[in-house]
Amino acid sequence: MPANPLRPIRLIADDYALAPGVSLAIIELAEMGRLSGTGAMTISPFWVEHADWIRSLADRVAIGLHFTLTDRPPLGPMPRLAPLGRLPSLASLLLKAHVGRIEPGEIGAELDRQIDAFERALGRSPAFLDGHQHVHVLPGVREPVLAALRGRLKGAWLRDVTLDPRALLQGPAPAKAALIAALGLGLAWAAHAHNIPMNRGFRGIHDFSGRVPYPVLFRRFLAGLPAGGLVMCHPGRVDDALRQADPLTHGREAELAFFLSQDFPKALAEMGVAIESLSSPPPIG
Fold it and tell me: I need a surface site. Which of 17, 55, 217, 233 has the fewest CB within 10 A?
């Protein structure tokens, strides 16, 4: 009897351009064919330089926009969300979304600026759209996200962060995953209604505590993930820029070590999956 075909899944590395150690790690994995794509933080001061680093890989990996609305200066004035010139913490943003204090027009203008920065530096449109800390699913944010995907980014796909009940129960951080999935339902329903392409299943949420080794977590992520599903990851090497920019440091090195190891292809084979090969849109003009 013929062997069962491997399930193609998307392995997407978040936070490209956050810091040099993160970007170089992502490039290394992409060159090895061990990633489907990466989401770029065009709000980062490193973005323009790091866009040059990854330009030659655009035909081999999907490069998307990792829309960012927390803890950094925005690319333009945001008097309601960032009156002092710095975006709020995630906790503050969640509260503002809950009480309806996010202005979609202001968010849409910042989204346009981050897309503009992507296209200027890379010469291509984003292959997909997601959010740093999943901000793209929040009320007041998801409306301009949908508008962009129906307009200037038509054809790009959207990260759907909803999970099936089994994945929630078996995951390493069920409360965190349940909150993200619940917030993502409204966006997923609206995207489906407008025929916006999305991944078919989502995994990768964990608490970065290191209590469960990442190779074990990764195998759990793959269990039951359907073809076309997406696993987000955060590989990177710790450097001074990362320490200053983000609290997630050594967990990135643990993920990178696994993806560089021979245990990674072994895990894929054990779970009957293959990394889906994606690419970015053609150059603009």
Answer: 55
Summarised one tens digit per residue, pLDDT across range 122-142 is 999 999 999 999 999 999 999
> Measured between alpha carbons, how far is 212 from 238 in angstroms, rounded to an integer?
20
Token duo for residue 184: 């993502």
168, pLDDT greater than 90: no
Burial (Cβ within 10 Å: 0-12, 13-18, ≥19) of residue 99: exposed
Burial class (CB in 10 A: 0-12, 13-18, 19+), 109: middle
Given a contact cutoff of 8 angstroms between Cβ atoms, the answer to whether 159 and 136 are in contact is: yes
| Interval 240-263: pLDDT, tens | 999 999 999 999 999 999 999 999
